[in-house]
Amino acid sequence: MRRLLLALALAVVLVAPAAPARADDLRVTGAQQLTARLWDYTMETPALGKPVHTRVLLPDGYDGRAAQHRRYPVLWLLHGGFGSVRDWTESGDAERLTAGLDLIVVMPEDGAGGWYTDWYNNGRGGPPQWETFHMSQLLPWVDATFRTIPDRGHRAIAGLSTGGFGAMHDAARHPDLFSFAASFSGAVDVLRGPLIVGVIGAEAITDGGGFDDVFGNRIFHEIGWRAGNPVDLAGNLRGLNLRLYSGNGSQGPFERWPTFDLVEWSVHDMTDAFARRLTSLDIPYTYDDYGGGTHSWPYWQRDLQRALPAMMATFDDPPPAPSPFTYTSADRSYDIYGFDVRDHRSTLQAFTTLVDADRDGFRLDGARGATVTTPCSYRPRQRKVVWIGGRPTLERADACGALALELPDRGGLPVAVRIP
Asked: What integer pLDDT is reported at residue 326 of this predicted model?
């Protein structure tokens, strides 16, 4: 039965229709069942240029006759720097901690230090494109291959250290994909602390890149660091259940002797800064600032154990997507909650913010002219008078009921759109 299911899963991948972000470029070249619940998949994609692994924990009884028509929520569980896909099951006890839960756990690879990011590479871009692999290729593959509940209300993301950055980075850049995000000792503010630039550079070199390849040079390309930094993107996290966990680097219950862990002290400072940013934005969160504790597995196991009940409760009663919503990005084009935004800026990377967007309109800040396509919220082929920057224009919805609106270049100043 398992061989048949695997064959069908591989067939789904190979015949999947093309997706805008090259989801169809992902190839599964091998699969190994490690335990009754745990599978290890070998994958290749041009986004990375080398084979990688993904581990998947299936629920108890997933292949049983009684469960054949059941669907399950998904937890994306991310490893840390200098780590691997093996970490959460070999060091983090994830298989035991999730036993008995109606939950699929996906543990993707991020290299020794991919930072869950499409690398800058001195302006050349990827590979490696870790974010593209995870969010645009692996996520659709998971939903096509396993019996998931494929919506944001039943998808969570969590991780430790660099993976804590990855969890908040992915949730903030893709809030329409997740309803729950948790950081365990996460490096959630890469512009803060004396260690982080050196750590990121060292991890990039370990992965075969250059010191500045991940985000660019810290001094001369600050926008590259801010573009994926959870503190800078914190406003995008409204509407998610957020959980933060961190010790302060001093001796905790799992240390026998007095100690001081500089890494945990540093990520605690970052977590504090992230929590203050969320507070300033009036975004709810839970912060388990547990005091004594080092940057080590006993605490991350405990963090996961403490986070799981809140996560499962979120799946039982998912928070609605915010409406209207506000979203900030430094990408020249992005698709969020059904809105497609294409900034006409040709040279400089800069933040734009889609403000208070819903079917009645929105405001776009920071763009140098843009094309904004709405969701299919209107009657197909309907003609509507739309006010763009205070001027009326007659627009026509397409066959699905979306409006493609051209916004003028006002030098980055806000442009308001009203759709009565």
From this structure: 98
pLDDT value of position 64:
72
pTM of the model: 0.91
Candidates 179, 161, 177, 170; CA nearest to 132 is: 170
The whole-angstrom distance between residue 27's C-alpha and the CA centroid of its chain comes to 21
pLDDT at 126: 83
> Following DSSP, what letter does each residue of 165-216 receive, concatenated?
HHHHHHHHH-TTT-SEEEEES----TTSSSSHHHHHHHHHHHTTS-TTTTT-
Q: Report the run of H or E that residue 95 belongs to, with start and end.
A: helix 94-97
Closest among 241, 110, 271 to 181, alpha carbons compared: 241
> 68 CB contacts (<8 Å, ≥6 apart)?
none
- Look at residue 407 and give its three-state secondary structure: strand
Q: Is the sign of the CA dihedral 160, 161, 166, 167 positive or negative?
A: positive
For 79-186, strand residue ranges (E) read 104-108, 155-160, 180-184
Whether the bond between 324 and the residue before it is cis, its omega within 30 degrees of 0, is yes
Contacts of 109 (CB under 8 A, 6+ apart): 52, 53, 54, 79, 84, 85
User: Using CA atoms, how far apart are residues 167 and 186, in angstroms rounded to an integer?
Assistant: 9
pLDDT tens digit sequence for 255-308: 999 999 999 999 999 999 999 999 999 999 999 999 999 999 999 999 999 999
> Residue 17: is it exposed, middle or buried by C-beta count within 10 angstroms (0-12/13-18/19+)?
exposed
User: What residues in the chain have per-residue pLDDT under 50?
Assistant: 1-21
**Tens of pLDDT, residues 151-179:** 999 999 999 999 999 999 999 999 999 99
Alpha carbon distance 323, 218 (integer Å):
35
CA atoms of 162 and 121, how far apart (whole Å): 19
166, 178 contact by CB (below 8 A): no
Give the three-class secondary structure for 93: coil
| Cβ-Cβ contacts under 8 Å for 410 (sequence gap 6 or more) | 389
Residue of 175, 165, 179, 183 whose CA lies nearest to 116: 165
Q: What is the DSSP letter of 17?
A: P
Rounded Cα–Cα distance for residues 336 and 353 (Å): 11
Task: Give 66's contacts (C-beta < 8 A, 6+ positions apart).
Answer: none
